[in-house]
UniProtKB/TrEMBL annotation:
AB hydrolase-1 domain residues: 117-301
Pfam families (alphabetical): Abhydrolase_1, Abhydrolase_4
Key word Aminoacyl-tRNA synthetase present: no
Record's keyword terms, sorted: Hydrolase
Gene3D superfamilies registered for this protein in UniProt: alpha/beta hydrolase
Protein name: Abhydrolase-4 domain-containing protein
Highest rank taxon of the organism: Eukaryota
Alphabetical list of SUPFAM superfamilies matching this protein: alpha/beta-Hydrolases
Amino acid sequence: MTPASTRRLLAYCLPFLALSLFLSTELAYVNYRISGANRQSQIDTTDLNAHRTTNYFPWESISPTDELIWTDCYSNQQCARLKVPLDYSRPDGASAAIALIRTPSAVPHDSPRYRGPVLINPGGPGGSGVDTVVAAGPLLSTIIGPEFDIIGFDPRGASKPFPLHFTRIQTSEPTTTNAGVARSTPRISFFATRAERQLWSVEGASIASVNSSADALARGWARGIVLGQRAGREDDESLRFMTTDHTARDMLRIMQAHGREKLQYWGFSYGSILGATFAAMFPQHVGRLVIDGVMDAEDYYATKWSKNLFDADKTWMSFIDGCVAAGPTACALYAPTAAEILAKVDKIYASLRARPIPVHTETASGLIDWTTVRSVIFASLYSPYAFFSTGARILADLYQGNGTSLFEILQQQPAFQCACDPAEYQFERLPEALFGLLCNDGARISPEYEDVVTHYERLRETSSWADVWAFLRMPCLDWPDFPKNHFQGPFVANTSFPLLLVGNTLDPVTPLWAAKKMSEGFTGSVVLAQDSPGHCSIASVSLCTFKYIRQYFLDGILPEPGTVCPVDIPLFPPTPSTDPGFADAVEDQAQVRFVDALSAADRNLFEAAKELVELSPIRFPRGI
Ligand SMILES: *[C@@H]1O[C@H](CO)[C@@H](O)[C@H](O)[C@H]1NC(C)=O
Ligand SMILES: *[C@@H]1O[C@H](CO)[C@@H](O)[C@H](O)[C@H]1NC(C)=O
Ligand SMILES: *[C@@H]1O[C@H](CO)[C@@H](O)[C@H](O)[C@H]1NC(C)=O
């Protein structure tokens, strides 16, 4: 396929994949591909049908087996469901099924060049590795190398990212796809029906910031208590086995089912907790292990979530300063100084506080309010290279009192549908799995409201974005009293191969500090820094970073300690496209010259990395 047709295919795959897409966030966020409505109208029926065939696979047609049995699925990929013990302390008891997908290596498995499987974890916790590999397996394969199989798996209990619910009346026919199907069982569910879950979540969105209203923090606290109790009531006795400890054991099983004793792995965001947990539990089973967007494991297992935002304010300032530097053509919110741009944003906030904007488009009606904009700006910090240009345009529109461009982007999420046939959704991944995993993993926390207030006040000392982060641990306030006998550290080991840790210099939720801290516990490990804003290395394009990652997987060579990789794409492209989300559609000349000067191999790598950036979704915190 030519690059142009690949891009076109992605362009219309994405709205459908949107619910299930990608990646690497310890928050559950809905993933929107930003693409203009005009793109969708390019889809003709043939394309649509082709798309459905490519992105549909009846997982129920595979029975879980003890051995790996691969079936062709999606486009040129293979799927399997592996049977594992639900409870590893009772290996002959009930079983769980782990869904797997692989983008096969381009090298035959009997060739001496073949290097085995690399497992991918996209974060979450509970994010779907299957969806990641459906969408991005071939791109990851280009980066890591054709010698490897790229394996995605849905962790036990796997969740889908949260839908962002907001007041919206859908007037068009919604599109049905099976995006969002979860194939690993059992799964974590707090609600008996989809409608019940939907009704519950509407208020959650309205308090996604604990500053949304005077009582938002208190309501978040109360809702957290209800959710935790709900988790206990709906538990079919499997909930307690949804832990990172068990998922690490599942990864070992997956490798052993491949006939291998050592793990090869690339984990993003929460995937760093999973990777580090594996490395600490099974140091002799580390083959190659990359953790990218590293969290502080001690903070995570203490259910504090208090050390994520150290660089969030600086990441936000990279938007402001980048806009000043980019000039009025590249940045629609441009003003000559940072102070003036910040003043514009404050004016937008104040105006929306006073009066949300009512919006109508051809297909939907709703409103844009302070909480939505607050969440969207925070979300954009995850994917600056995919979103800052568009974000600047949205803010410029809001500054004029126009909420249409933001509303149109938010609308790309498929509308809620009640199931006519409940079986239709039997494999659907549920948003509550995020909380299932993090509350099971983490230490018990005090359910007292006063302690929640104190925790929030401390969090505010770390960042001005504390308001959109504080709700994360609230479902753990009155969590079922399961024994905490799973692995929770320490994160120290002499591993059979040294770890590679990757961190961006300005990551809004996984500060480079945490990668350096984690590295201290793992003998011989090295931290590779990427000089960019955004969450995880794949938020930007850096040939330097990706060559180090490939070299590590292929030759086992680590970068020199202290290495900092530059990135190869601009934060605000000089000539942004008018089509939201396709800021690269009008190529900029400096970039064209840069790419032309690359070798064929580097150009391949560059294009793959760039497509990954474009796939990288915007993630919206959504409350509880
Ligand atoms: C949230 O509320 C606190 C306390 O009223 C205030 O100090 C802080 O600036 C607010 N943050 C935002 C983002 O509005
Ligand atoms: C609001 O912005 C959209 C483009 O995003 C434009 O089409 C529309 O005309 C604008 N509405 C008003 C009232 O200016
Ligand atoms: C790693 O090996 C060194 C030297 O053999 C030893 O001193 C240290 O205790 C080991 N660390 C762990 C966590 O096993």
